[in-house]
Design a protein that fits this description.
Layout: H1 7-16, E1 20-21, E2 27-29, E3 32-45, E4 48-55, E5 63-67, E6 71-79, E7 87-89, H2 95-98, E8 110-111, E9 114-116, E10 122-127, H3 134-139, E11 144-149, H4 151-154, E12 166-174, E13 191-194, E14 197-198, E15 200-205, E16 208-215, E17 222-226, E18 232-237, E19 240-248, E20 251-253, E21 258-264, E22 272-278, E23 312-321, E24 348-356, E25 368-370, E26 382-385, E27 389-396, E28 402-406, E29 412-416, E30 431-434, E31 439-445, E32 456-460, H5 463-467, E33 471-477, H6 486-490, E34 492-495, E35 502-507, E36 513-519, E37 525-530, E38 538-539, E39 546-554, E40 557-565
Parallel strand pairs: 1-15, 2-5, 3-6, 5-11, 12-16, 15-23, 24-27, 26-33
Antiparallel strand pairs: 3-4, 6-8, 6-9, 7-10, 10-11, 12-13, 13-14, 16-21, 17-20, 17-22, 18-19, 18-21, 22-23, 24-25, 27-31, 28-30, 28-32, 29-31, 32-33, 34-35, 35-38, 36-37, 36-39, 39-40
């Protein structure tokens, strides 16, 4: 049974705004990060326990504070009783470490990825990414921030004391039934919360304060602003700092998008400021507008009545207090060196089309696909050469806006329907909201990581759409490791495969191997053996477990074989 809003309840939710102290997630830092995914309960409503999931706690997860250049070992222990994954959203890691739907964590097992932090300073996040279960696991509470620091950001005069003048804010809407349990999936998401806190309030010092804002909702888009249209300043987008601060009174954030913003509370001690969503300003066709489809003929079950749709509402309240001992009191103008990728360097343009499975007026209640196909775990939609610079042109042929997210890389927006992006969208991005009948183009480069086995994802970040198949996958391949000649490949074999440490090469009589080179999954050369003799053992015992590539140089050409080391 759904909770019914009375007129008084709507006034309290949208206008008068009771206060609950904002939950500030704890932090983990260093080069060894341990996360335990667990079931729990949490009192969103005083006196009532709601069933939840969390990381290292009952709801949400700790904020991970990492440094660019550090090699970090992670341990993710799954105690939720269901298979899941953890995806490091926005981070540039190998596909084996990315945590997509192929890299599952079974119940009562531990996943141990490890990787070098290659990303620029910025705000990223982690969350489950199991196909058909992403929405449930995220909505129940498994999500956490990742803050990356680097020298370029550290040289700026910015607020960066966590929980004092630098705050993470994950904004979400949820639906609760009459027993105050989370309903998933649902379009009746009429409860707004920040950091799992309904009617959230935060004491902020009378100085410049930094907020790392994440739209962690399943579906809803927010139109961020302050009451009285007070100016705030965006300093970072999904992938890190902008080149200069952008003065704004509105900032649109779709599910999965992040933005670092600065608010100057100087001289406002004792005053109250509201962070709002000005949803009344949305055009039709955005989840959060009065009409979620392009026109009134498109309906979405459960969407109305909902006091959040098409109205301006408070997200949270700031109560301004005295300054800290070392306040930041000015907004920096110049921030970071941002070098967009030149369109002229692109190797290829890929064209993608978002569309409904059923194109009629009831399409919003159905499924959506990309390039007319639903996600298939066993189908690779694109194979991309390592090092490629690509333009992706994505058109939305549906009646509702979709936030498009790509794994592995950050991109630069080239244009929206031929128009250059606004300043707030000129930085590095990994999510972009594409409106109905709109075409966007972005450019990106697929550097550093490749795999013959594990793909990356691209998908709509409206989690209900993603779970129902609005997703595709691509492999980045190192063409330098490709087999030059299929006939030659059939004349050469390696045994045993898998191996516990030693392999032997078997060839037909007309093939002679002159040199052998061993590569890891990233295409890095680990070992070279020259003047290889017949029946010579090649020792791999010093190599880590997993997939490796054996590149053999013969009198007939080059051949590459995949080998699995099991020791």
């Amino acid at each position: 049974m759904k909770i019914k809003f009375t007129f008084l309840a709507v006034l309290i939710s949208v206008g008068l705004f009771a206060q609950n102290s904002l939950l500030i997630p704890s932090t983990l830092s260093g080069t060894s990060i341990n996360l335990t995914l667990q079931n729990g309960t949490y009192q969103f409503y005083s006196g009532t326990n709601t069933t939840t999931m969390g990381a290292n706690g009952n709801v949400l997860g700790p904020t991970l504070i990492l440094n660019k250049g550090d090699f970090v070992n992670f341990s993710v222990n799954n105690q939720i009783g269901q298979t899941t994954t953890i995806h490091w959203h926005g981070m540039h890691v190998s596909p084996e470490n990315d945590g997509g739907p192929h890299t599952t964590i079974a119940p009562n097992t531990t996943w141990t990825p490890s990787f070098t932090i290659m990303d620029k300073a910025g705000t990223y996040w982690y969350h489950p990414h199991l196909h058909t279960k992403t929405n449930e696991h995220v909505s129940k509470g498994i999500a956490g921030f990742i803050i990356v620091n680097d020298a370029e950001e550290a040289a700026l005069t910015l607020p960066r004391t966590y929980g004092v003048d630098d705050f993470p804010l994950v904004v979400q809407t949820k639906d609760f039934d009459a027993s105050k349990q989370i309903v998933v999936p649902s379009n009746s998401d009429d409860v707004i919360m920040v950091n799992a806190t309904i009617d959230a309030a935060l004491q902020t010092p009378a100085q410049v304060v930094r907020f790392r804002v994440l739209n962690g909702s399943s579906m809803r888009v927010f139109n961020i602003g302050l009451n009285n249209n007070k100016t705030f300043y965006q300093i970072a987008s999904d992938g890190g700092l902008l080149s200069s601060s952008a003065a704004l009174t509105r900032l649109q954030l779709a599910p999965g998008e992040r933005a670092d913003i600065l608010i100057d509370f100087s001289g406002m001690t004792g005053q109250t400021v509201f962070l709002k969503s000005y949803a009344s300003e949305f055009s039709n066709g955005i989840y959060g507008a009065t009409t979620p489809g392009m026109g009134p003929g498109f309906t979405l079950t459960g969407y109305n009545p909902n006091p959040l749709n098409g109205t301006d509402f408070n997200i949270m309240q700031f109560n301004v207090t005295t300054q800290t001992a070392s306040p930041v009191t000015s907004i920096p103008t110049t921030l970071a060196t941002v070098t967009p990728i030149l369109e002229s360097t692109s190797n290829i343009t890929r064209t993608l089309l978002m569309s409904p499975v059923d194109s009629g007026p009831n399409q919003l209640n159905g499924d959506f696909v990309i390039n007319s196909v639903a996600f298939d775990l066993n189908v690779i939609n694109y194979t991309i050469p390592l090092g490629n610079t690509e333009i992706w042109s994505i058109s939305n042929n549906s009646a509702i806006a979709h936030p498009f997210h790509i794994h592995d890389v950050q991109f630069f927006i080239l244009d929206r329907d031929g128009v250059a992006p606004a300043p707030s969208e000129q930085g590095r991005k990994d999510v972009i909201l594409i409106k109905p009948q709109e075409t966007i183009r972005f450019i990106t480069k697929f550097d550093d990581f490749s795999s013959d086995v594990v793909p990356y994802m691209y998908h709509c970040h409206m989690l209900f759409h993603e779970d129902r198949g609005m997703m595709g996958q691509f492999k980045v391949v190192n063409t330098a490791l490709g087999v030059a000649d299929e006939v030659l490949g059939n004349k050469v074999s390696i045994y045993p495969n898998p191996t516990d440490g030693k392999i032997y090469i078997n060839t037909q009589s007309d093939v002679t191997i002159n040199k052998v080179e061993v590569f890891d999954m990233l295409g890095r050369s680990l070992k070279t053996i020259k003047n290889v003799k017949k029946d010579q053992a090649i020792d791999l015992q010093s190599f880590s477990m997993g997939i490796h590539f054996i590149k053999m140089y013969s009198n007939k050409g080059i051949v590459v074989k995949k080998i699995v080391v099991n020791h």
